[in-house]
Amino acid sequence: MHQKRMSMPTSWKVPKKTNKWITATSPGPHNKDASLPLVVILRDLLKVVDTSKEATRILQEKQVLVDGIVRKNLKFPVGIFDVVSIPANNQYYRMLQDNKGRLYLNPIDADRAQWKICRINGKTTLRGGKVQLNLHDGTNILASNAYKTKDTLKISLPDKQVLARFEYKIGNTVMITGGQHSGVVGQIKEIETIRSSKNNLVRVSGKNEIETIENYVFVIGEDKPEIKVGNE
Fold first, then answer.
1. pLDDT average, residue stretch 36-43
2. What average pLDDT does this structure show over 10-38?
3. Which of 49, 84, 101, 117 has its CA 20 to 30 A from that of 215?
4. 155 Cβ partners below 8 Å, 6+ apart?
5. Structure pTM?
6. In the prediction, which pLDDT does 3 show?
7. pLDDT digits (tens, 9 = 90+) for 58-115
8. What is the average pLDDT value for the chain, to the nearest integer?
9. CA angle 36–42–47, rounded 5-degree value
10. Is the pLDDT of residue 192 over 60?
11. Could you tell me which residues come within 8 angstroms of residue 159 by beta carbon, excluding any fewer than 6 positions away?
């Protein structure tokens, strides 16, 4: 199915009035409002192709990788912190979010394209007592029970081995990935646990001190961001 440009998600940083229709994402690791279809990335953001037909050709030629895996589906959803690689053109990008909540591609080098960061959204105990970590991008990996939900893992691509862990705790560096403060980077100053069904609150200090809900907080490093942010 297709999507009308005028009603597309606000996270899509794409012109609305150039055409009536735009390709929708297919079911995958990210939901529709938090991801962009691969064809839109290639044609509208990177402009490496002019049409969806040209995008189909380079995808069928296995020239495009997402998180180190060749993708051929035009509608494949690419979400925050995913890595898009076009090795033949020496182009590597990490998907980030700006201060208006819109997804954009941040250029990175080939070395940084060999890993990504993922937040632990949940844990599952499997048969035999093995612990499965459920990550924000739909990935499930087996790991130690020492890891906690809301922690972030740095994992290798495409084999998804744990390279480092960044704990969800006071002092660590985070990026806010939702609400009116989307894209803001700062350090956790305080975590307020709410004894009810409401979301826990987190105070983040950066240029200004702000407050947001826990679900919008994504740890991206300890003293400084592990990933490249902005134009640094």
1. 92
2. 79
3. 84
4. 115, 116, 117, 118, 139, 141, 161, 162, 163
5. 0.90
6. 78
7. 999 999 999 999 999 999 999 999 999 999 999 999 999 988 888 999 999 999 999 9
8. 91
9. 125
10. yes
11. none
Residue 186, token pair as written in the block: 């700062």
Q: CB neighbours (10 Å) of residue 140?
A: 12
Cβ(160)–Cβ(139) under 8 Å? yes
Query: Whose structure tokens read 């201060």?
Result: 99
SS (H, E, C) the chain: CEEEHHHCCCCECCCCCCCCEEECCCCCCCCHHHEEEHHHHHHHHCCCCCCHHHHHHHHHCCCCEECCEECCCCCCEEECCCEEEEHHHCEEEEEEECCCCCEEEEECCCCHHHEEEEEEEEEEECHHHCEEEEECCCCEEEECCCCCCCCEEEEECCCCCEEEEECCCCCCEEEECCHHHCCCEEEEEEEECCCCCCCCEEEEECCCEEEEEHHHEEEEECCCECCCCCCC
